[in-house]
Amino acid sequence: MSYYPGLIESLVTKNDTKIVYFIMDGLGGLPVDDRRATELEVAVTPNLDELARRSSCGLLVPVAAGVTPGSGPGHFGLFGYDPVENNVGRGVLEAAGIGFPLTDRDVAVRGNFATVDREGKIIDRRAGRLSTEENQRVCKKLRENVKVPGVEVFVETVKEHRLLVVLRGDDLSGDLADTDPQTTGAAPLPVRALKPEAEATARLFQQFVDQAARVLADEPRANMVTLRGFAKHKPYPSIEKRFQLRSLCLANYPMYRGVAFLVGMEIHPVLPDVPSQIRVMKEKWADYDFFFQHAATTDKTGEDGNFEGKVAAIEELDAFVPEILQAKPDVLVITGDHSTPSALSSHSWHPVPVLLHSRYSRIGGATAFNETECARGALGMLPARDLMPLALAHARRLMKFGA
Amino acid sequence: MSYYPGLIESLVTKNDTKIVYFIMDGLGGLPVDDRRATELEVAVTPNLDELARRSSCGLLVPVAAGVTPGSGPGHFGLFGYDPVENNVGRGVLEAAGIGFPLTDRDVAVRGNFATVDREGKIIDRRAGRLSTEENQRVCKKLRENVKVPGVEVFVETVKEHRLLVVLRGDDLSGDLADTDPQTTGAAPLPVRALKPEAEATARLFQQFVDQAARVLADEPRANMVTLRGFAKHKPYPSIEKRFQLRSLCLANYPMYRGVAFLVGMEIHPVLPDVPSQIRVMKEKWADYDFFFQHAATTDKTGEDGNFEGKVAAIEELDAFVPEILQAKPDVLVITGDHSTPSALSSHSWHPVPVLLHSRYSRIGGATAFNETECARGALGMLPARDLMPLALAHARRLMKFGA
Lengths: 403, 403
Hints:
homodimer; alpha/beta; Alkaline Phosphatase, subunit A; Alpha-Beta Plaits; 5-stranded antiparallel beta sheet; 15 strands
């Protein structure tokens, strides 16, 4: 559908309506060989089906025809950000996931602690999956001992063997190739510039790696650092600035918290489960306009190729729908950020069922909430990027365009 | 849908086919609380339903997902003009509505005659809704007595308390704020530039207002002028130039006549009703390629929140369909420029049912003409801007693209 950058922002107005997104990660599926139905079609979902019959349904195309999105583009689209223009590098997403306050002078990269032998060849790419506590101790050692002239160096623990490295300085570039050879028996690759203007930054990161190797030489396991997903940070206009939405993120996984953080949502501390997320949403109902509820079980089971597990995950989430409706959101959207069919054990390009419930929803022909029925819905097939404008419109938060 | 500016124009060819648009303003609707059907679904429309079963049906998105269009963008889209690129200011639309021949050196603005007290505060924003005759007398007085150095001044009666003011000169800007304070008890606001380059134009319009106040000082009611909707005119390429269509507008309301005038249609004098419009179309059948039939009752009843009234308006228009078909148009399009659900008492963002009838129409699954059935139609959901290319194609007026 037509896309006019800046048009929606120019029409946004404030009111006291509430918008809730309930995102079931990787929701869309595929039939497997021996059955003709997808996970969502097999699952018994009385609440979703009943709601679908009173809502506008459709199918979201996360990025473009045939394109399988990562979680970054998947979520950027749902939040009304063009997923290609706003494609975010892994390093930046990792930083955002732990709430590291990046600036526009930063290049961020994901690191792994690894174990190398005397010749410098990797013998364990994850340093024996060292504990998070050990990671913290080693990161502290790096912070105290590694100095790269001309830039500030930040070293942060993520989890287990994973860390974040950020260099802050002038004219840095993120166009650098990964140093992780993705195999054992090989030495880490030197930091290599992918474009001429990244040569200087490559030398700075190489200095970091060389010093880190010296500082960690006496470590029994974490005696090397490999780097992948270099990315220069470009600040995003916030969801509050663009759409006048004070927004609360209720997601537990760093990746999704990261995207929400990048678009300026408030990030609630990690909660044990979806019911807790819904309870917190109700407690904070007056303080925000937009609530981002995220559940990861649908994606994890799909990634595991576990059809029955994904069916069970969907059925479990279905049971929470009445609790969300109790809050009486003016607009409730239920969808996923992409499909993760268990038949593929991975993300896929298939469109994702979506349901938009509000008192101004036109009701189409969908008689249940699944891939086939949503195709008969009033929303048709639409880019994920169009979802937020529709949510704002149904919440009466967009003014008329033109005379 | 993909959009390639200039492509359609490069493919246009002439023949003697006839295209008719029958536009029911604000056609799309919503269910209201106590019923599950929209106005169009409740209305008994045997002619539209029968025609839908022999036509390609679909849903038009007037501008973009979630965007509620004014009548200007709504109609620009239907005529094959991008509704955002060609967004037209209120002043220009008002001028076009009375057939004022604007040039590219003009800034136009809508005016109200108002009554102010001795301190200059507005006591009646519409000067007691003075008669059109009185308006004409006062406009003449302004024309004869107000002179602004460096520009030509045009003052035209619109209707009752409404007038049009146009300044014509070099380097004028329309980026000016309204002077109408939209309330009584306050003085009109000074003319204020919204951008630095509009400062000079602001001073010229202020001179107009100051002189008008002096000239009208002895008027009992119309002793002041307020201005809103300043707009610089940018001439549009005509529908004849772009699509080789000699076009006749059969619409009675200034707004729709205005858009048709801006795209270079011939504007027929106002007629008493739709049957007269259809009769004139048949009389002029040989002289034009494209006929724009417009009915406003569907929008007016929707704006009034009158569900039953809108149902009745639709049923009344349904009865005219056989008369239009008698003319044997090669392509008949029936749709609206936007939705005006009586549940909202206003324009809305919801897609609009559309029917395209021709001997080359592919028949889809729509069994009646309404929002739900059109979603099953052969056209799918499409931007309004794509409608004219489809009408031209079905009229065999587009050549093959490429070898």
